[in-house]
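User: Watch each token:
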Amino acid sequence: MKITLAQIKCVAGDVDGNVKKIVEAAHKAKASTLVVFPELSVSGCDCGDLYGDADFIKKCEKALDTIALECETVGVLVGCPVGKFNAAVYMFQGQRKVFKKKQLTEADKKYFVPADEDDLLQIGCHKYAVTIGSDLANTNDDEFLLQNRVDELMPLGPDVIINIGAEKCGVDQSRIRRNTLRQNVLKTERPLVFVNNVASKKEATYDGGSMIFGYESYVVASAPFFGEAVVDVNLECLISMKHEDMQEDYVL
């Protein structure tokens, strides 16, 4: 079984361009069970008031039909605004399932409402807890007592955690992010797949660095910083016993 990290540059408001990139990346995946894209990959991030524009939301939702048609034989998980939700949408051979962001940022709260249900994505015999962006951030004042969206999904028995993000670059950000994600792996004892939006280093916005953590909480596969990439990973790597991260920090 393979999973693909599709780290693509999603441009704010360019639905047609983003859809084209999504389709191209999905077709590059080699015999992958699931191709995972960043948060709001259909609409692009930082769209501002467009998220409150009903016509724009309808255009994004219509774009999902195009992706479903063009990628019918490939399982894809894409970020897209759906109604009043910041969502992740799974599509494969006519199936469609929507997962909604629960832990909203202040920017999210201007346009979106939190998830109103808990559910897992099941593919074959594996169950995935699908989370979006800040769903994995710690809501507890105590940094050593992690609390977040996953606490609500763990009783459903997921095998793997997925987080699609739009995380921006910053001083020491790569290390901070990796440690936050690692905390989730250590707490849940589940491997974690993280896929991030990306831009060039010159643009100094989204830094990429998508990665997969194995059961031992080390990065066992990763995509580069500040560059688009499609990375196929055998799920066998999730049981890697390597005690060394396969990702180095970047310097701004």
Q: What stands out?
A: The chain has a mean pLDDT of 94. The radius of gyration is 17 Å.
